[in-house]
Amino acid sequence: MTDAVENAVYDVVVIGAGPVGENVADRTRAAGLSTAVVETELVGGECSYWACMPSKALLRPVVARADARKVPGLSAAVQGPLDAAAVLAHRDDYASHWKDDGQVAWLEGIGADFYRGQGRLTGTKAVSVTGPDGSEHRLTARHAVAVCTGSRAVVPDLPGVADARPWTSREATSAKEVPGRLVIVGGGVVGVEMATVWQALGAHVTMLIRGKGLLPKMEPFAGELVAEALTEAGADIRTGVSATSVRRAGPDGPVTVELDNGERIETDEILFATGRAPRTDDLGLETVELKPGSWLEVDDSCRVEGSNWLYAVGDVNHRALLTHQGKYQARIAGAAIAARAQGTAPLSTERWGAHAATADHAAVPQVVFTDPEAASVGLTLAAAERAGHRVRAVDHDLAAVAGSGLYADGYRGHARMIVDLDREIVLGVTFVGPGIGELLHSATVAVAGEVPIDRLWHAVPAYPTISEVWLRLLEAYRG
Fold this sequence. Notes:
Elements: E1 7-15, H1 19-30, E2 35-39, H2 45-49, H3 52-68, H4 84-94, H5 101-109, E3 113-116, E4 118-123, E5 126-130, E6 136-147, E7 151-153, H6 161-164, H7 169-174, E8 181-185, H8 189-200, E9 204-209, H9 220-233, E10 236-239, E11 243-248, E12 255-259, E13 264-267, E14 269-272, E15 276-278, E16 310-312, H10 323-341, H11 359-362, E17 365-368, E18 373-378, H12 381-386, E19 391-397, H13 402-407, E20 414-420, E21 425-433, H14 440-448, H15 453-456, H16 469-478
Domain Pyridine nucleotide-disulphide oxidoreductase dimerisation: 364-470
Pfam family, one: Pyr_redox_dim
Organism: Streptomyces yanii
């Protein structure tokens, strides 16, 4: 950590040292710009300690067991329960036991100066840092300040919620023991992944879904197949219901959840997986005429609209709340900051240019690591139609692909390709099924590269793999 300096000048000041801030710093340092990084919690951010890494460490044993149980000759060997203590210990290792020494060392190794404390804007290109000991540092940026502070879980303001001490995604991924009963409010990615984990580790999971089904932002069949598997595993999924109040009996007692239909459910823990809000409420945005607590609107180089020095990268700009997309934005923003600082002109900000985050509009990939996995990139059928495209949805049963039967007995899955009929390119792809997460990058290349259908026909999938679904989709499209 940087020694106390009351006033320091850098080319770039980065507020937030999660994967996004780390990548902005990496790109600006690689370009020769002096860079300071400010972080109030742990270097590595949400992804390293409470999201991507611990959640996937929890999910991997669950999904691996589910896959193994469907393989002849192996299924009998994996019929027992998961070793919950070993799974949680594996998770702790991947979360670095919530210590950031290694990440701090990496940050300092690239030549960035690190300040631990709360960073706040105090005016144009000016940042103050309040350290854990109350010390104050004043930093000035010659060229850019990048806000990379991410987002936080939203807990609805229900009667009794504060005293009930509900879980958010942080508690769900860092819990030290398995609850006997867990109520999950919300059916998005966090909700279904945590339902998959804790049901498999021994909790009885009840999901409360306000809408019609799970994973509402994906194709309907994705949520349907995931719900089917969760129900078979023992989860209780209730749709069209909302929690209206929660009450915990004593410091460690059970939680009573009251529903809008008058029913009451008793549980040991309750997880609210009901959305995210930007971490911008204590950043001094008012000093530069921006609204505290707001999402920050940016151009395709991630520069805040109306500013020539302030950047908002990752979740805070609300373009795509995914770690890999935030890191993509960080590479774009870091390159743009460096180019502007060095007077490079003109910047390559045209569509698909080096300084434009075009993929955030057209080709955002996401994998939901449930059993079965769900993965998508680009537009769904409904989104494509809303956008005014003339499209055709091409569907195929993944169980009818040779590679899927070899992967698992009783394989269940589905694939959909959305084709723009005017341009004959792929606008979106969705896969659901065991092991399909690794198919997604091929779909992302097809969507981002706007590869013509006629050319995709010559991209021959290896036999016998699940990737053969590409050939079947193209055959179905051509008729």
